[in-house]
Each structure stands twice: as C-alpha cells, then as structure tokens.
Amino acid sequence: MSHAHILVIDDDPAVRDILQETLAQEGYSVSLAVDGATGLQLAKDQPVQIALTDYQLPDIDGLDIIDRLARLDAKIIPIMMTGFGTIQTAVRAMKAGAFDFITKPFDPDTVAVVVRKAVEFHRLRQENHLLRKAVREQYQLEQLVGTSEPMRQVLDFVRKVADSDSTVMIQGESGTGKELVARMLHFNSLRKDRPLVPVNCGAIPETLLESELFGHEKGAFTGATHTRMGRFEVANGGTIFLDEIGEMSLPLQVKLLRVLQEREFERVGGNRTIHVDVRIVAATNQDLEKLVEEKRFRQDLFYRLNVIPIVIPPLRERRSDIPLLIDHFLARFNRSKQTNVTGLEPETLRLLTDYDWPGNIRELENMVERLVVLKKQGVLAASDLPEKIYRKPAAAPELKEQFIRFSEDGINLSREVEQYEHQLIVEALRKANGVTTRAAQLLHLNRTTLVEKLKRKGVDPKSHAEGLPN
C-alpha cells in the first residue's frame, strides 16, 4: 500500500493540507493540484494510482476530470469529493466511473479507509490483469508442442476455428491434450477475457451433474439451502468445456440439447428461463458414433456437438514429436524443481521414442518429472528408465524389399510412407468388407482417427468392400 501515488485535485487549500497530512501518514506519496488542468498535467507527468478530485473546480467539472483521467490511463481509480452531497450527485459520480463518493466536511479516518480500499482494488485489478496475460501467453498456439504432420494439421485447424463461436468436438485418447486444445481455443478467441469453465461430466455423479450445469433454486432438493448458479451461468459471455461428454446420461443429454439449440434453460426446481451467451467445446475419448449406434448417445445431440470436429492423434502416431516434448518437459521441471538434468543419451532417447505410451502425453510428462526428480543432474541413461520401457524395446519394423524404391537421387520418404499407409488402409477395408469400425480394429486405430484419415485421403470405405469395384 505504501508505494501508491495519490493525486489530490481541490481548490481549497485547507482540504489539500488535511488530505496531504492524512495520506502521508498512511505511507502514500501525494501530489497536490489547485485545479483540473494542473491535476491532469501531473497525471501525465508521473504514474498515478488513485485520484481524489473535487466535484466543483474553477476550470473543469469533476465529472469531466474523471472522464479525462480514464482516457489518459484507465488504471487510475477516481474518488469524488463534494460539499454538495446529494443522492443525485453521488449517482452521477458513480455512473461516471468514480470508485467512491466522499461528502465534505469529511473525517480524515474515513478518507483513509476509502483510499485504502481503492488501493487494494487497484492492486487486485493489476494482479488479475497480469494473471490473465500470463494465462493467455501460456495458451498461445505456439505452446502446442509438435512438428509432425498430424500435429501441424491440428494446429492449423485450431488456428482457423479459434475465433469462431461454433461448437467444437475434440476427440482423442486419454492424455492426448484435449483440455489443452480447449484452452487454446478459448484464449485465442474473442471471448478470451471472459470465463472458461471446465466441467468433467465423468467425474461428477449423475444426480449432481444437472445442478452443476444449470444451478438450482433454494429448496429444490434436500440440502439445497440456497440458490446456486450453474456452470452455464458462470460461463456466460465465455466458453464452457464439457469434458468426457460421452459419460452424460440420456435424460441430461435432452436438456443439454435444448441449451445448444436455444441457449436457454431453467435451474433445478425453478421456472424462470435463463438465457446465456456461451460457446460450447466438448471432448471425449470414446467413439460417439458407436455410442449412437448402441442407443447410448442421442444422434441429434451428436450432430449438434460435432459441428467442428478436432481429432488429436495419440502419441504413438506422432513419434517424431517425442524428443521435442521431452525437451519441453525437461526445461519446465528443471525450472520448477531447481534441478539440472541436461539431456539424454542416444539409447535413452531411442527407447523413449520406441515406447508406445498408452497414457499418451500425460504419461510422458509424468515419466519426465519422475526422471528429473530422481536424477537431479547430468544426462539421463537407459538405466535410469523404468523396467517397462527398456525391458522390451520395440523392434524397428522390417522393411520388405518390395517397398524399397531407392534410386540414385534417393526417395521421398513422406510420399512413400503416405502410399504405404494408403495400401494398409485399403487392405484393412477389404478384409473388413468396407466396415470402418472393423477396419479400425484391424489397424489398431480409433474409429474416429480412421474416419479422419479416410476423409483426408478421399477414400470411400464402401468402394473397398469385397466384391465391389475400386
């Protein structure tokens, strides 16, 4: 508090003297101005946190002072003083942006309390601004680590749809970074200064989820001792992230469908319709289309949620990103744990890259943290790894002679891999008689991942069923 700079604008010398003495005793630095023009010049010449201004000045109206201070520096907090303390005057001052209103003659202790509150408000507002800035920087698109083709596609897609208000469905295995993508969508959108409210639909009991989402009225059920806002109301103007959406019960899916269609709902136990302006981002590690076929997920809700689908590939399908991710996590944990693990031996990196990472990025992150904590400094050796990684290292696939097409100028690896992948997918579709779910099982892929690959390659699964032309 003692570092705050207070500007006092008043044409009465007695008032200026009292305020200077009172505020100096509180530990503030104080600048005095006899009129509005002098006060505005002082505010231009040096940083000011709080400004106490008289309502009636010889040159400029106090309301105009507040307006000009706001245009000069929106962070300055104005407090209005006046000897004509009417309700109308107070209302006009507060509408103009005054933090508080002090009537003359005033008690110096009262002024000290008001200024103390204003300084605290200024501090909290600055902290909030810095925190929001830090969060936005943390979730810049560049923080999505990876240079592989699958991740470049995800990044390009996120960049294209971030500033849209369309509903997004993020699909991917557990640990692939679905929440990170949701946060990037929010903090790179026009809603970035409004709330991002996450809801884990799989972690909240079904009996409580409706109340969590839509709120409840006092007395709506046993234990509802007061009215409570739901997550949709809290997210108004911002984004709500519905994680594990596939776990939601059918009755609740009906109510969610209405919110998607109308952007309105009623609290549990209430009859007042509440309208909200929110963007909905959902995520799942399940095959929702399969759940729809099994009648466990509403088809109409699926289509409402799946307006813009984003499929995040598992880590085993983007192995070239593993070294980058390891470097990223090493740097982070070295900073946070004050260690100095400087890198990895080549064999260590090979083992980590060959491992399939069933827990995806989350498992890799936890592994790097464990290694950093145990190693503390130096280079990570293969002997530092847990047994599950080095016990059965994945063998490099044997190259079949017919797929090796080296010429004097070499080969285009990306094109060769793409063609080989295309052949494998077509063969899987033939064996599965054009059924994508079965083909995905044969390829050990999620169905959604295979569907995305088919779309990208322009492959019609039915055209590769047995007995049908190609």
Automatic annotation (TrEMBL):
Pfam families: AAA_lid_14, HTH_8, Response_reg, Sigma54_activat. It comes from the Bacteria. SUPFAM superfamilies: CheY-like, Homeodomain-like, P-loop containing nucleoside triphosphate hydrolases. The keyword Nucleotide-binding applies. Residues 144-373 form the Sigma-54 factor interaction domain. The modification 4-aspartylphosphate is found at residue 54. Keywords: Activator, ATP-binding, DNA-binding, Nucleotide-binding, Phosphoprotein, Transcription, Transcription regulation. Residues 5-119 form the Response regulatory domain. PROSITE patterns: RESPONSE_REGULATORY (PS50110), SIGMA54_INTERACT_1 (PS00675), SIGMA54_INTERACT_2 (PS00676), SIGMA54_INTERACT_3 (PS00688), SIGMA54_INTERACT_4 (PS50045). GO terms for molecular function: ATP binding; sequence-specific DNA binding. GO terms for biological process: phosphorelay signal transduction system; regulation of DNA-templated transcription. The keyword Nucleotide-binding applies. This is Acetoacetate metabolism regulatory protein AtoC. It comes from Nitrospira moscoviensis. The gene is atoC.
